[in-house]
Amino acid sequence: MKAYRISHGGQIDGLQLEDIVERPLEPYEVRVRVRAVSLNYRDLVVAKGMDPTKVDRPVIPCSDGAGDVIAVGSMVRRVKPGDRVAASFFPHWLEGGPDRSKVRNSLGGDVDGMLAEEVTLHEETLAKIPDQLGYVEASTLPCAGVTAWNAIFESSDVRPGDTVLLLGTGGVSILGLQLAKAAGLRVIVTSSSDEKLARARALGADVTINYRATPEWQDEVLNQTGGEGVDLVLEVGGQGTVTRSVASTAVGGTIAVIGGVSGFGGEVNPMTLTLGAKRMIGIYVGSRAMLEQAAGLVAGTGMKPVVDRVFPFAEAQEAFRHLESGAHFGKVVIELTQ
Length: 338
Description:
Elements: E1 2-5, E2 16-19, E3 29-38, H1 41-47, E4 64-72, E5 84-87, E6 118-122, E7 126-128, H2 135-139, H3 141-154, E8 163-167, H4 171-182, E9 186-191, H5 194-202, E10 207-210, H6 217-224, E11 230-235, H7 242-248, E12 249-257, H8 270-275, E13 279-282, H9 288-301, E14 307-312, H10 316-325, E15 331-335
Parallel strand pairs: 8-9, 8-11, 9-10, 11-12, 12-13, 14-15
Antiparallel strand pairs: 1-2, 3-4, 3-6, 3-15, 4-5, 5-7
């Protein structure tokens, strides 16, 4: 069996294809033939050595993958050979809220992930894929889809007609756009590309703002909301955007802090939160139950997660570089044909 491995901080050039000898299954383990793996910004963070869950050995990268069950341990009851499944980002966070024990491991971080021809996982890590979703589509959901789901449906109290602000057109933002529109929300999207903004409008974005043409984009957000601000921001930018995101938020609104594409850090004056009764909450992906719910909504509404480009397994480094370039709109996926 072939799998990619990378050391934390090994850079994209350090992503190497290796032959792996598979071990026998433990009683509650499942072997999955991987059909598709989607990439996240977090995979670049691991490659650059910036992920906080560092380990001193190479790992199989990537948290997000989908495939077929090909073998099960003697005590497995949740799945059977032939089932189509996706893996949850956190193997131990099955449902409910997070705690230290639930987020102690993450696929592709401190334990082996999905960028392999076959993977071995505990049965509780797996969620069945609805029949309406293909492997490529299903592979987009475990990190980006669940993160957007958590921010919109679990960690805020937005209702149909409320307004959501999405920064950029990467995986979380575009899946967030699709989920938000399915829930009847008004959506504002920012990007530096007019072409990408046009594509966002085609997906249902109500307002688009080019932040290069409008550097003080928070003022335009306020203008587009009658001076009120948005009810929810999916804050993926980090230190370069968080202050503007807070300024864009309505009284009583929520800033869901997800990532740090522009770097981690930045300063937020606590008084701006206090005087606006605004809430800032960290979103650390989510549970298996959230993955199942997100997949159910996507399948039930006929939604098709936006995939920017699909690379073959042999071109994994090229896929990582495409993600790093920032040229993508939606998800970057690696497909395995076996």
